[in-house]
Amino acid sequence: MAHRETSYFIGDKMAVDKLQELQEQRNTLAAEIKTLGDSQDSWGAEERERWDVVNAEYDSIIESQAATQQQLDVSARLDAISEERQKSEWQAKRNDEPQPITDDTKSKALVAWCRFQSGQDVTDDLYAAAKRCGVDPRKAFFEIDYREAGKYNANGFGGEFRAQSTTAAAGGYTIPEGFSNELERALLAFGGPRRVSRVLRTASGNDIPWPTVNDTSNKGAILAENTQVSEQDVVYGSVTLNAYKYSSKLIRVSAELMQDSAFNLGAEIGSMIGERLGRITAEHFTTGTGSSQPEGIVTGSTLGVTAASATAITMDELIDLLASVDPAYQDSSSAGFMMHNSVKSAVRKLKDSNNQYLWQPGLTSDAPDMLLGKPVVVNQEMASSIATGEKTVLFGDFSKFLIRDAGGVKLARMDERYRDYDQTGFVAFSRHDSVLLDAGTNPIKHLIQA
Predict the structure, then answer these.
(1) Rounded CA gap, 20 and 17, in Å?
(2) 341 strand-pairing partners
């Protein structure tokens, strides 16, 4: 145990050192981007090529910083799991009371179910993990029997998942936490709006009317002595959140992978499913029509500024876009810009009247780039080119964009369809919706090219 803790410490220090090194590289590239931008009027082919290379390297550094930070987060979780195991072992020596479940136990429960369903041997430790988690490997669907799990666990395994609103009674098929963590990370990788929006998780998928109210046109009044107050009604409205069903499409896993004890099945399937669901939901959360699919953040936004050019964005237009949003939303901690990475590359060239760049690089690894003092969110589902009719930039309060996740992810296996390949098929289903909460005050606006 001591050796493992030491290796975590060394790995953490290396990751911290790498973050510092990446930040130094990021600062160097940011300086070169500004230097190139200063001479853009005299660019030749070589300078234009270098501009594209430096911007690509800068964006790659940001991605590396995020990955390294994730490594540190994983290490912290491993340290916590190691400490939990030590406590569990110590507790087991003292008495036979139920012990807390670790992520490792939950992962083993999933492996036990997968192996049994594909006709493979299930070891005693995997069976024991499944029993502790309330999982019956013989069932066609992976699900939790909370009453059974409660007999063996001190931390209320069922209660932990009820907090995530994925109960069997509500029709969900609960997935181990390790799977859920991988799924969440993969969804965020393609997140766009999900990174900054408000996410509502519900146990079921019934329609949810969400009330809205706009009282901004009403004011109080001076009242003379002994005069009755006048009435002014408040007009309410509502938007409805649905739950559209999505599928990961079928994923095939070979028997060799499931037999390999070193293979983290929960992480692998979670990553693949998360990427697939992340791609389609990111598209719909951005440009969805709102008819038979979620309403995208671009679709729900209102016109803020029409650019003078079909192929360029100016400093004044970005300032006007920011100013077109009510100050109540401008000053929100959730306010910011959103654009495609290619558009952000063009915006990096813009300067203000003092010859200072509007774009300011983040000074630390976890700090976003800033534009006019507001963070910039990259959404690869937005328009990638500056062309006629394209809504290239959003600005507003992103907390007013609501994403709904209805229930948990339901994972099913198909063991007969690909048995001649000695493979097992997995398919996952999830339900989502999104809508912009706009009571008439237009919290998010867009810039559109002429």
Answers:
(1) 5
(2) none
What letter would DSSP give residue 334? Answer: T
* Count of beta carbons in the 10 Å neighbourhood of residue 243: 20
Can you name the CATH fold of 181-214+229-450? phage-related protein like fold (3.90.1690)
How far, in Å, CA of 395 to CA of 376, rounded? Answer: 9
369 and 339 Cβ atoms separated by less than 8 Å: no
User: Per-domain residue ranges for the chain?
Assistant: 2-94, 103-163, 181-214+229-450
**Model pLDDT for residues 157-212, shown as the tens digit of each residue:** 333 332 223 333 322 233 444 555 556 665 656 667 888 999 998 888 899 998 88
No. of H helices and E strands in the chain? 14, 14
Going by the DSSP 8-state scheme, the letter that residue 399 receives in this structure is: G
Instruction: Give the list of residues 6+ apart from residue 449 with CB closer than 8 angstroms, or none.
Output: 306, 307, 309, 310, 311, 313, 386, 387, 388, 389, 390, 392
Note the pLDDT tens digit of each residue in 79-124. Answer: 665 566 566 555 555 444 555 677 678 778 878 877 776 566 788 8
